[in-house]
UniProtKB/TrEMBL annotation:
The keyword DNA-binding does not apply. PROSITE patterns: PROKAR_LIPOPROTEIN. It comes from Streptomyces chilikensis. This is ABC transporter substrate-binding protein. InterPro entries: Bact_solute-bd_prot1, SBP. Belongs to the bacterial solute-binding protein 1 family. The lineage of its organism: Bacteria, Bacillati, Actinomycetota, Actinomycetes, Kitasatosporales. It comes from the Bacteria. Coiled coil: none annotated. Residues 1-29 form the signal peptide.
Length: 458
């Protein structure tokens, strides 16, 4: 079995960061500012950013930036690009991309019109872009910003064969469960600390007349996040690293244990809104909004996903910290899991303008703008936490920075995109099939191993 050695993340116990996050979330049952508005003093999420990095004048130059972001997330990022335009005179066009973004970029490159910069959501995609000769190394100015503002772990995630290619502009804590506070209050449910507690809480919510979980099964990546959190906590960091590198097969007993545990939710009658068929027709944004609409009788009481859930909660009448609350994904094994993800800016067409944009995105100037708009976390340690719009977001950001390199990166995002990042194929499709038939644990394992072996070239 081939061992992937390109990825160089920290190999650390996750208990420390899990404890930090748990304490952070416990400390923020509501917005400490009272009015839900962000604190002032460090800049503004509406376009006024402190200028800590000098950018060149680029009048008349044009740039295209591709990303898979849609909706509010895309609109917020466009505000960051608008600030770059204002400060440099360049004209930047956002290019909507489709998953898998590597395939999208391949078609653009084959057609002779690649974007100048792409926001890549998988570590594996960065490595593929380098292997294909598409990605260009970052220049001195961008590297200087990374060295100044980022921990080594986040720098390493964007490094291939000793060269820096990626700027991790956006981070995600993917170990959170959000809940409708009114549903919990009516049911007499409490925030769980362990997996067994979670099952008890789910039954309490069910007994009150509300379906416990909303699952966005139409988007296979949400299912990989479910698996990774259970697996990391139950099997432990060492096994997690081995499976992520395909050093152990998906037929390993540890995978069987994790899938069996998942089936305690996915296979429980009436625990998932709409049942398996309904979940497989529910896209991620709808999985969030249906949890926080309908007053105290929503379609579900809880939804699992990362900090970015706040963007979609913002499309409802619910207030984060009061109507919509959050707790860390509970411990299945000895420690609660902390799985992180992120999106990195990678240069495809090298130019003064593209390098300047990478430098800007590596600075606190850019991240500070989007921080103030909500639904976003930055791994940039120079971003003033007061810019985040509420206490929940601020505490998450502080916990992320305090953790330093103490995290595990999303497993499917480390995999070759054919296995871990393609709709309708690989891990995404097999876990969708497992959601529909969670009794077939061994069948799912065999399919996962066959697809992984093919994608990793074993």
């Amino acid at each position: 079995m081939r061992i992937r050695k390109a990825l160089t993340t920290s190999r650390i116990p996750t208990a420390l960061v899990a404890t930090t996050l748990a304490l952070a979330l416990t400390a923020c049952g509501g917005d400490g500012d009272g009015d839900g508005k962000k604190k002032t003093g460090g800049g503004s999420g509406t376009g006024a950013a402190e200028q800590t990095v000098k950018l060149p004048k680029l009048d008349g130059q044009t740039l295209e930036v591709a990303a898979v972001w849609t909706g509010t997330e895309q609109e917020n990022f466009k505000k960051v690009l608008a600030e770059f335009e204002k400060r440099t005179g360049a004209k930047v066009t956002f290019v909507p991309a489709q998953d898998p973004i590597i395939n999208f970029l391949g078609s653009k490159i084959a057609g002779g019109s690649p974007p100048d910069v792409a926001m890549l959501p998988q570590v594996g995609a960065i490595h593929q872009a380098v292997e294909k000769g598409w990605a260009k190394p970052l220049g001195e100015e961008a590297r200087a910003q990374l060295a100044k503002n980022y921990s080594k772990g986040w720098q390493d995630l964007g490094t291939v064969d000793g060269k820096q290619y990626g700027v991790y502009y956006k981070a995600a804590n993917k170990s959170l469960i959000w809940y409708n506070a009114k549903v919990f209050e009516n049911a007499g449910a409490s925030e769980p600390k362990s997996w067994d507690d979670l099952l008890t809480t789910a039954q309490t919510v069910y007994d009150s007349g509300v379906t416990p979980f909303s699952v966005g099964g139409a988007d296979g990546w949400t299912l990989t996040d479910w698996f990774e959190n259970v697996y990391l906590s139950q099997a432990g960091p060492e096994k997690y690293d081995q499976l992520a590198a395909h050093e152990i097969p998906w037929t390993d007993p540890s995978v069987k244990d994790a899938l069996t545990t998942l089936a305690q939710v996915w296979g429980k009658t009436d625990y998932v809104a709409g049942g398996a068929d309904g979940a497989l027709q529910t896209e991620f944004p709808a999985s969030v909004t249906q949890t926080f609409t309908g007053g105290d009788q929503p379609k579900a009481g809880m939804v699992f996903e990362g900090d970015f859930v706040q963007v979609n909660i913002g499309e409802t009448d619910a207030e984060v910290g009061t109507d919509a609350k959050v707790f860390p994904f509970p411990a299945v094994g000895d420690a609660a899991p902390v799985v992180s993800g992120g999106d990195a800016a990678v240069i495809l067409e090298d130019s003064k303008a593209a390098q300047a944009l990478a430098t800007f995105l590596a600075s606190p100037d850019a991240a500070g703008i989007q921080a103030g708009l909500g639904g976003y976390l930055s791994p940039n340690k120079a971003v003033d936490a007061s810019l985040y719009p509420n206490d929940v977001q601020r505490k998450m950001a502080e916990a992320l920075i305090e953790a330093g390199d103490d995290f595990r990166f999303d497993m499917s995002d480390q995999a070759p995109q054919a296995f871990g990042g393609t709709p309708g194929k690989g891990e995404w499709k097999i876990l969708q099939d497992f959601l529909k038939n969670p009794k077939d644990v061994e069948g799912a394992q065999r399919k996962l191993e066959a697809e992984a072996a093919k994608a990793y070239g074993d």
